[in-house]
Amino acid sequence: MRAILHIDMDAFYASVEQRDHPEWRGKPVIVGGNGKRGVVAAASYEVRQFGVHSAMPMREALQRCPHAICVHPRIAHYQQVSQQVFEIFHQFTPLVEGLSLDEAFLDVTHSQAAMGPAEHIAVQIKQRIRERTQLTASVGVAPNKLVAKIASDLRKPDGIMVVRAEEVTSVLDPLPITRLFGIGARTAPKLAALGIHTFHDLRLAREQLLKAVFGKYTAQYQARAAGVDDRPVIPDWDEKQISAEETFDTDIHEPARLLSALNALADRTATRLRARQLQSACITVKIRRNDFTTFTRQHHFQPATQETQVISQIATQLLLAWLKEHPRTALRLLGVGAGELSEAQQLELFAAPETQRNRALDTTMDKIRERYGTQSLRRADHLKTPLRK
Amino acid sequence: MKFSAEREAMLSPLQAVIGVVERRQTMPILSNVMVMAKSDGLTMTATDLEVELSANGTANVAEPGEITIPGRKLLDIIKALPEKASVTLTVEGERAVIRSGKSRFTLATLPASDFPVIENIEIKQQISLAQTDMKTLLDKTHFSMAQQDVRYYLNGLLFELSGQQLRLVATDGHRLALAEAKLLQPVTTTLQVILPRKGVLELQRVLGNQGDVHISISSNHMRISVDGVRFTSKLIDGRFPDYSRVIPQDPNRIVGAERSSLRAALQRAAILSNEKYRGIRLTLKSGVLVMQAHNPEQEEAEEELEVAHTGEAMEIGFNVNYLLEALTAVDGDQVELGFTDGNSSCLIKSPGAVASRYVVMPMRL
């Protein structure tokens, strides 16, 4: 039986702000973009009582809680804190799959032999997070990712919820079906019309009835409702890789936008390789679908490289091949990793002119970005919206 | 076929040709040597289809003929006989019988008519030079040839003839070696041919220290006869890259050093360089060349050498093996290193001399 933890930092951005500003503790704090189109990135528990939640438009949030303290997000700062938290995760298992800055799955199945049962590991992780960052986290402990994620949400904030294999259905059954990933505002009313409101209802519903709603995914959704999920925890980049990844604000399915995002990530990875004077002989593309299933595709090659263009080309081919197998898939995350690293690179006497041009371009771009910032200069194919003619 | 000969008269031609006898038996007959007995003596021939060697020995031929016999077994048997022993070889049916004193060996044979010999070649150009010159040229260049490179034309040595000059060039794409010698007679047309790696290594074994060597070149073959040994090799059918383009013409930083001290310092520093990449960092600053190496265990070596130099301070990385091999091959007690910048090749030669030159591409460390 597997032991999976889902760890979710409580109101992460807002809690970091309250920690850093003691005068805000106990008060409603909203972290989010101001401006008309701004949305709530995080809401402290004090402000949640007013019905404010993340992804709500700022304007609406302020109507509900006019006296809230509004803070502009300091993403770089949250990243640092997140890194400290992830370091703690890695003390318990190498199998850490980060979902965002404040959320991760850990597979501690094999850690139990040395570190005690999973619930004990969960307690220790919470304790170390508190010691290191003065922040709280909620942990779900379960036999799989699906149940662990639902469980962590049941005891928020600062809770631990353990769901044993034999308890899975009894824990899930009474929960509203909207807690199941993939059932949102569009699907829920259709299910309600069929009299399906809870996990229990969905689990026991007749397959024929559900076909109209889920089509060929019926069996999959019924299995999920029963708490069945065998997706593995796919660890983030190992330490022998240099990588860049991006979780999209909204899922992306247009190939052109995916490729431009991928190219930008390839460039970031290549820039990091050059900054650390490393060459890579293996490129990995990480692909996370909107249902959180994660795929990786890899290509080994010689000679090793640190050129943006070469890495972009390889990553593009890997992603295109994957998209061919999975057409019209919406993606939540893309990543480009460079492995099989070496420090040295022997230069060629009879180098192709293209290689020399690429190197000159990379060096120049690196210098400009070093001086004027990483956003100062971008390749046209990394632009999120194409240039107007 | 029947002949008798002294052990040594059989051993020396066998040893001369055994190098090309195939160890991997792609074709069974290639692990055999062809033995030909004629009234004037015997000839042993071996081939790997790329390089053919044949060598003569004196013998008392009672009955002329030709046969092929497993090469390594024949060599081992002859070698193991007592010195100056008299050996008789007869072909009886499909077997070859070797008798010497109270020893008797029966070996399997294959017919000589099946042995793939390189027939007479159509000579396009003939050149002659001192045997020692030829040997020196090979010694000074062969180590830079590529090995099993997909650019097959780099897996060999370029022979370039023009006027009264023979120039050999070898490169594996990372470094290049070039050496020149004077021909006894000028040639009328310029010519470039590539001798494959195997041919180069065998030719080095064939060459001696005295007299001249005569080289015949056809469009597909090169043939050289020296001291009773005839060497024939196929040529690589390909175009050698334009090497003159990658020899630095005017490096702006010239470093002068004593060859043996520089080599010794590099050899010491190399001990702690990364075993896989062999990287070494050279830093040139006011009158001193600093050599630094480190390995994944973070052990470090640092050497300093006083040098004469022109041009500004600079830093550059190399595969230390390439520098050492070039420094071993270059002429003279003093050596000159010409640099342009940290990303450009280094020219190594003896000051004032151009007969041998080495180009090494740097390594990014």
User: Mean pLDDT score of chain A, rounded?
Assistant: 88
Spans of chain A of at least 5 consecutive residues whose pLDDT stays below 50 are none
CATH fold assignment of the largest domain in chain B? DNA Polymerase III, Chain A, domain 2
Which second-level CATH architecture of the largest domain in chain B applies? Roll
Which percent range describes the beta-strand content of chain B? 35-45%
Task: Please give the share of residues in helix of chain B.
Answer: 10-25%
Main β-sheet of chain A: number of strands, strand sense, barrel status? 5 strands, mixed
Succession of helices and strands of chain A: EHEEHHEHEEHHEHEHHHHHEHEEHEEH
Number of helices of chain B: 6
How widely separated are the two ends of chain B?
65 Å
What is the mean pLDDT of chain B?
93
Largest interface: A-B, 11 and 21 residues
- Considering the protein shown, what is the CATH homologous superfamily of the largest domain in chain B? DNA Polymerase III, subunit A, domain 2
Q: Any idea of the CATH class of the largest domain in chain A?
A: Alpha Beta
Number of strands of chain A: 13
Descriptive tags:
heterodimer, A: 389 residues, alpha+beta, Alpha-Beta Plaits, DNA polymerase, domain 1, Dna Ligase, domain 1, 3 domains, 15 helices, 41% helix, B: 365 residues, DNA Polymerase III, Chain A, domain 2, eight-stranded antiparallel beta sheet, 44% strand
Structure write-up:
The complex is a heterodimer of chains A (389) and B (365). Chain A has 389 residues and is of the alpha+beta class. Chain A has 15 helices and 13 strands. In chain A, the strands form three sheets. Chain A has a five-stranded mixed β-sheet with strand order 5-6-1-7-8. In chain A, strands 9-12-10-11 form a four-stranded antiparallel β-sheet. In chain A, strands 3-2-4 form a three-stranded mixed β-sheet. The longest helix of chain A has 21 residues, at 255-275. Chain A is globular, with a radius of gyration of 23 Å. The mean pLDDT of chain A is 88. Chain B is α+β, with helices and mostly antiparallel strands. Chain B has three domains: 2-114, DNA Polymerase III, subunit A, domain 2 (DNA Polymerase III, Chain A, domain 2), CATH 3.10.150; 125-244, Roll (DNA Polymerase III, Chain A, domain 2), CATH 3.10.150.10; 247-360, DNA Polymerase III, subunit A, domain 2 (DNA Polymerase III, Chain A, domain 2). Helices cover 18% and strands 44% of the residues of chain B. In chain B, the strands form four sheets. Chain B has a nine-stranded antiparallel β-sheet with strand order 14-11-12-13-26-25-24-18-22. In chain B, strands 6-2-3-4-17-16-15-10 form an eight-stranded antiparallel β-sheet. A five-stranded antiparallel β-sheet of chain B has the order 5-1-7-8-9. In chain B, helix 1 runs antiparallel to helix 2 and helix 5 (259-270) packs antiparallel against helix 6. Classes of the chains: A alpha+beta (389), B alpha+beta (365).
